[in-house]
Design goal:
By secondary structure, this protein is mostly helical. It is about 75% helix and about 5% strand. GO terms for molecular function: kinase activity.
Amino acid sequence: MQRRRTQKSRARGPAAGWLPGHLRRWVVAAGLLLGSAASRAQGPQGPALSLARLAVVRDSLTQLLATQPRPDTLRVLRLNTLAFALRLSDPAQAQPLAWQALALARRLGYARGLVEAHFNVGYNARAHNQYDSAIYHSRQALRWARRLRNPLTESRALFNLSRSYSEQGNYAAALGPSLDGLTLTRTLPSRRPELLQLLQAARIAAGLGEYPEARAHIAAALRLLPAAPDAFTRGSVYLVLGDVERRQGQWAAAHRAYTQAHAAYQPVTTARGQLPLELNLAEMQQRLGQPLAARRATHRLLHLLQPTATPEQLAQANLLLARNWLPARPDSARPYAARALAAARPAHLRPQARDAAQLLAGISDQLGQGHTAYQHQLLASAYADTLSGEAANRQLAAAQARAARSRTQTQLDLLQQQTRLRQQQQELERLQARQQLAGTVGIAGLLLLLAGGAFWQYRRRQAAARAAAAQALRQRLAADLHDDVGNLLTQISMQSSLLREVPGSPAQLLARLDQLTTTARQATQQMSDVVWGLHQTQQTLPALLDRMRDHAHEVLYPLGLEVDFEVSPAATAAPLAPETLQSLYLIYKEALHNVVKHARATRVTIRLDASPTGLHLTVADDGQGHDGSARAGGHGLRNMQARAQAVGGTVQYEKAAPGFLVVVELPAAGVVARTL
């Protein structure tokens, strides 16, 4: 007995062996609290504890919470730590602990406790498929983390928010937090947060069907894996890789990845926590032609999952058993397919419900029950159409979210540049003021000061004139492109509504998606022209010529039209005002648009020459020709004439043999000033 006491004392260590029991528990718990905090400092979720250490954490903190009920910030810390530690092994116990921590932190006004409590509540809500609650608490954790200026905790909240959106199927909303989190984690010293954010980006890409991008994110995560070699992280990498392989039907590769994930999770996950992954492995066995092994594994897993199985797990297991019995035993497969459909329909698991209905249709057909087979086939087709429409809507929403984020980032970059320019200008003004004050000595200093003041006023007037000209140019650009862009955006809205509200065959849906893509591309080009126009005061004619050549190649070559584009050396030296450069490009675009839309030509000839008064542009085609009058409902010819007249130029139309000829005369910079 004495030897056993000595061994226990040695196990506690020299620093704790002589302490009383309650103090020893405090020392152990404090060490575990610090270790758990260090674990959370590794990434959005923190590496999971080993099962042995988890048992020590659970027992020590549970005893401390029971024996020391004082409602203070230390209790909040203990509640949060225990909830975080049990998030994987015992989520049912972790959830009430997180709620207790949240209530106490609110009562105490403890900001750090509120961050962790909101994160834990959001994490557990996501684990229970309560996505609205998960999103709310993740946003609250993000708000408090930003208030405390804690980038690591902020990255964890962004991770959980993105996961909640993606598991809800709202990939467009998940993109923003995922990209923000990935950008933020790249500034942190540890690479583990970045690795987990890469895996989340891979989940989103796979959910949108963008598998090359998903694989690129996984490859980047694998490169970071040596810097974060813990079991949980390794298991997460191979789990996501297995999911991507499974989505693409690469059963052998998915089986290998799931096997590696299962082995990695073994030290940190309970046997019950491994059951969903083992269910995926059983499905891979069935896909790889091992029906007997898959059947035995699935029956065992279904029995173990029954007390706490989610509808998704029940549907997956029953579908697997139904497929396993086909085609030899349709009578044995039928009850499993029916159970899968019964589990999937109330939970709105449309992919599983579609597969179950499809299996029941085939089973009923094998059993000679034609009417039942027809009903199940109709149900499967309805689910398939719904899934196709949802996938199209998700992709469209994600594309719109990316475009909006890109526009926002561009605006932020422009605003930052303007702010830096203003700061530089203010600094320059301060330097000028100090120089002027230092130089005010005698008559020479006074004259210098007066000259400097006059020069400064002159520069201000010049800057004001340039600003006014730039503002006027932007207003003209907005007026020129408003109708086009507005019309295209209206078309996108109508086409997306048509996709959502009007059912159609897969071919019709594909045609509508193609039309929507074409319209979006046209809107993107129009917005590109707006951005170019905003900066056209810095453009030169040679740069504009490059843009004109690129536009001709983009518009004409895909339609099989030959392009002959020639510019004389004298034309490149012609001095043109910014407004004239803009009008030249827009008239040129309209001329090419008319060729594509009306001419039915095979060849387009473009010439740009210098004229005595400015620039001479001709666009000729060998198409069906035109008499130069405006078509019904068309504004192209009138628009070209209006643009040319606005800068003092002319546009003439001539019918060639064969084809049609557009002749544009635009004045040089000095002539424009005199004309206008």
